[in-house]
Design brief:
Layout (H helix, E strand, L loop, with lengths): L2 H15 L4 E3 L2 H5 L16 E4 L3 H14 L3 E4 L16 E4 L6 E5 L4 E4 L5 H9 L3 E2 L12 H7 L6 H4 L6 E7 L5 E5 L11 H5 L8 E8 L1 E2 L5 E7 L2 H13 L6 E6 H11 L9 E7 L4 H17 L1 E6 L3 H12 L1 H6 L3 E4 L2 E2 L5 H14 L3 E7 L4 E8 L6 H18 L18 H5 L1 H14 L12
Parallel strand pairs: 2-4, 3-4
Antiparallel strand pairs: 1-2, 5-6, 6-10, 7-11, 8-9, 8-10, 12-14, 12-15, 13-14, 13-18, 16-19, 17-19, 18-19
Helix pairs in contact: 1-3, 8-10, 8-13, 13-14
C-alpha cells in the first residue's frame, strides 16, 4: 500500500472508530503543525493532525496507525528547539493540546496528577493556589506544555537548585506504539521494582511512546525570592563569578547569565535600565526561607564583587524582582526583534563555564558572526544565539560551521551538544559523536523493543 492510500485508510478508520477525535486534514490547518520553534530547520507538512482528548483516544490512534503502518509524530505545544515536533510527510501528527486536565492535587503526598497538554505556568499556578510548588521552570514556561517538558527532559532557570524535569517525575501513563497502555512508577518516593522505565521515557522525545498522564512531585511553596543583578567588564570575570558562587557552597535558585549582545537587545526592547556597557550580567536569586535569603544574597554579592563585578543591583521588593527576572526570560524574544536567531544549547562541567564563554566568543568572532550568549550558568548550560539579517543567504552555511565548532569545543571540555533542548532532528548526527556508536546501538535496540514497526518519530533522535 502506498503512503497516500495508507493515510486515507487510516483516516477512514479513525472517523469510523474514533468519532470524537478532532481531525485536521485541510492544508492550511496542517501548516501550523509543520514546524516547532526551530523554524529555520526544513520541515514537512503532516498528512493529517489528530487532537485526542483522552488516553483511550490516543491508544486508538496508535493502534490504527500501527495497523496501517503510518508514522506518528507526538506533539505538545510546539515550543521545542530541536525540530523534535516538526511535521513528517506522510505521517500523522498527534497533538496533545486538548488534554489539559489536572486530575488530582494530592497535598498529603505532595504530588499532582495531570494530563500532558497543560501549560507549565498553568500547572504552577494551580498548585500554588494550594500552597504548593512545581519547580521545573523553562524560560518558555508560559507557553510550553508539561508533555513537551517530559519529552525533552526540559531544564530552565531553576535547575541549579532543583534539577531538570526528570527529577520531579514519580510515575507515567504511556501509550506504546501498538496502542497498549502501561503505567510506570507511582506515588512512592522510593521504588526499585524493576527497570526505571519512568526515567527512560522522560527525555525520549516521543520515540518510545506517548505520555498521556504524569504523576509529578511537589514541594511546599517557598516565600518571595531575593533577587540580584551583577554586571561585569569581561566574560572571564563573569565566568569566574559563577565558579566562585558554586565553589563557595551557595545554592541559589537561579544563576543566569547574559552577555553584552543580549543585554543591549533586552534593554532596547524593554527599557529596563540595564548596564549596556557591561560585557556580561548575572541574575542571582535565593528562595531560602526568611532571613536566610538575605544572607545568601550577601554571600553571593561578596563572591561577585571579589570576581570583579563593576556594579550590583538588588531588588527592593517582589515587583522589582519580577522585572529583573523578566530581563532573562525575554532574552530570546528580544533578539528575534533584531533578525533571524539560531539558538544552540551546549553544556559543560560548571567549572569550565569561563572557558566555554571565551571559546564561543572567539569562534563567532573568527567567522564574523554576531553571537549573543545567555543561559543557565549555574549548571553549565549556555545558549549561543547566532543572529543574522533576515534572508541572509549565508546564514544556513555559517550556522552549521559555527555550531559545529562550538559543539566540538564543548565536547572537548567534557560537555554535551544538548543540555536541555534534546537531539530531535537538529543534532541527530552528533549523538554518536558524543555517546559513541555502541551506546547508540543500545538506544536503537531499546527503540526497536518498544516500537518494532518504526512508526514512532522515524528519523528523530536516532
Amino acid at each position: 500500500m502506498d503512503t497516500a492510500t495508507a493515510v486515507d485508510a487510516l483516516l477512514a478508520d479513525i472517523r469510523a472508530e474514533l468519532p470524537t477525535v478532532r481531525l485536521l486534514t485541510d492544508a492550511l490547518d496542517r501548516e501550523s503543525y509543520r514546524n516547532d520553534e526551530t523554524a529555520y530547520l526544513p520541515a514537512e507538512l503532516p498528512a493529517a493532525v489528530a487532537l485526542p482528548g483522552s488516553t483511550d483516544e490516543v491508544a486508538g490512534l496508535l493502534r490504527l496507525a500501527s495497523k496501517h503502518r503510518v508514522p506518528v509524530v507526538p506533539r505538545g505545544a510546539g515550543t521545542g528547539l530541536s525540530g523534535g515536533a516538526a511535521g513528517i510527510e506522510g505521517a500523522l501528527t498527534v497533538a496533545l493540546t486538548r488534554m489539559t486536565r489536572i486530575l488530582e492535587i494530592d497535598r498529603e503526598n505532595l504530588v499532582v496528577v495531570t494530563q500532558p497538554g497543560i501549560i507549565n505556568a498553568d500547572l504552577k499556578a494551580a498548585v500554588a493556589r494550594e500552597g504548593l510548588f512545581y519547580p521545573p521552570d523553562p524560560a518558555s514556561y508560559e507557553t510550553c506544555s508539561i508533555g513537551g517538558n517530559l519529552g525533552t527532559n526540559a531544564g530552565g532557570l531553576c535547575c541549579v537548585k532543583y534539577g531538570q524535569t526528570r527529577d520531579w517525575v514519580l510515575g507515567l501513563e504511556v501509550v506504546l506504539a501498538d496502542g497498549s497502555v502501561i503505567r510506570t512508577g507511582g506515588r512512592n518516593v522510593k521504588d526499585t521494582a524493576g527497570y526505571a522505565l519512568t526515567h527512560l521515557f522522560v527525555g525520549s522525545q516521543g520515540t518510545l511512546g506517548v505520555i498521556t498522564e504524569a504523576t509529578l512531585r511537589l514541594r511546599p511553596l517557598p516565600g518571595p525570592r531575593a533577587t540580584m543583578l551583577a554586571f561585569f567588564a569581561s566574560l572571564e570575570a563573569c565566568g569566574t563569578a559563577v565558579a566562585s558562587i558554586i565553589q563557595s557552597g551557595l545554592v541559589p535558585v537561579t544563576l543566569e547569565l547574559m552577555d553584552r549582545e543580549t543585554i543591549v537587545a533586552v534593554d532596547e526592547v524593554h527599557r529596563l535600565g540595564l548596564d549596556r556597557e557591561a560585557a556580561a550580567m548575572l541574575l542571582v536569586e535565593s528562595d531560602a526561607p526568611g532571613p536566610a535569603a538575605a544572607a545568601e544574597m550577601d554571600a553571593a554579592e561578596a563572591a561577585v564583587m571579589a570576581a570583579g563585578a563593576t556594579s550590583v543591583v538588588r531588588a527592593a521588593d517582589a515587583q522589582e524582582a519580577d522585572w529583573l527576572r523578566q530581563a532573562r526570560r525575554l532574552a530570546l524574544r528580544a533578539l528575534e526583534e533584531q533578525g533571524t536567531v539560531r539558538m544552540e544549547d551546549v553544556g559543560v562541567p560548571r567549572a569550565r563555564v569561563p572557558d566555554l564563554l571565551v571559546a564561543i566568543a572567539e569562534i563567532a568572532g573568527r567567522h564574523g558572526v554576531r553571537c549573543a550568549t545567555f543561559g543557565h550558568a549555574g549548571d553549565g548550560n549556555l545558549h549561543p544565539n547566532l543572529v543574522f539579517s533576515r534572508d541572509d543567504p549565508a546564514a544556513a552555511g555559517l550556522t552549521h560551521l559555527v555550531r559545529d565548532e562550538i559543539f566540538r569545543v564543548a565536547l572537548s571540555m567534557g560537555g554535551t551538544v544538548t543540555a536541555e533542548h534534546g537531539i530531535g532532528s537538529s543534532r541527530r548526527e552528533w549523538l554518536p559523536i558524543q555517546r559513541g556508536e555502541g551506546a547508540v546501538a543500545a538506544m536503537r535496540a531499546i527503540k526497536a523493543a518498544f516500537a518494532p514497526l518504526g512508526i514512532l518519530h522515524p528519523g528523530r533522535v536516532l
